[in-house]
Amino acid sequence: MKLIIEFHAGSIFNKVVSMIQEFQSWFSTQGEILGYILAVFHFVISAGLLTLVIISHTIYPSVWLKLFVFSCLFLIWLQHVVLDICIVTVWEKNLTTGTLTPFHRIVKDIFAMFNLTLSDYDTYLLIVEGVAVGCFGLELVSHLAVYLMTNRALNIA
User: With 70 as the cut, is the pLDDT of residue 78 above it?
Assistant: First the structure.
């Protein structure tokens, strides 16, 4: 039996863009305003995921919350690596005028304090995302191993 999966990133991207365009018409028809709303949403999602990572390892270390955070981070990392873009950033750039998206203007100002550029941001983002996804994935594997050893009486040693 042979299973062939065809993957066309362009067609998937076009379908995502058409769904997003339908969704954006619910808020406003002015592109510039939508671009800035989306930039705030982008920043809130980024800060929210970072907050959830901290909460899932300190205040509420539940496996289901760690799995949720891992799933979100994995999907974001996957679109950054496979598509080589952030879909939200492209959407922001298409809606606003100027060379930088509103989100990148915020990031540029923050990175300027540390004498870093936007290309440094992209590089460090991919490195940090890859390490985070790898570490959180291994953490979930360790939770599974502990569950199997305690509840299924598996003895590895």
Answer: yes
Handedness of CA 96, 125, 62, 140 (dihedral sign): positive
pTM of this structure: 0.73
H or E stretch including 116?
none
Number of Cβ within 10 Å of residue 101's Cβ equals 25
**Distance in angstroms (rounded) separating the CA atoms of residues 22 and 19:** 5
Among candidates 15, 16, 38, which has minimal Cα distance to 26?
38
In this structure, are residues 80 and 130 in contact, taking their beta carbons and an 8 Å threshold? Answer: no
Measured distance CA(22)–CA(55) in Å, rounded: 34
The contacts of residue 140 (CB under 8 Å, 6+ apart) are 63, 66, 67, 70
Report the distance separating Cα 96 and Cα 87, nearest Å.
15
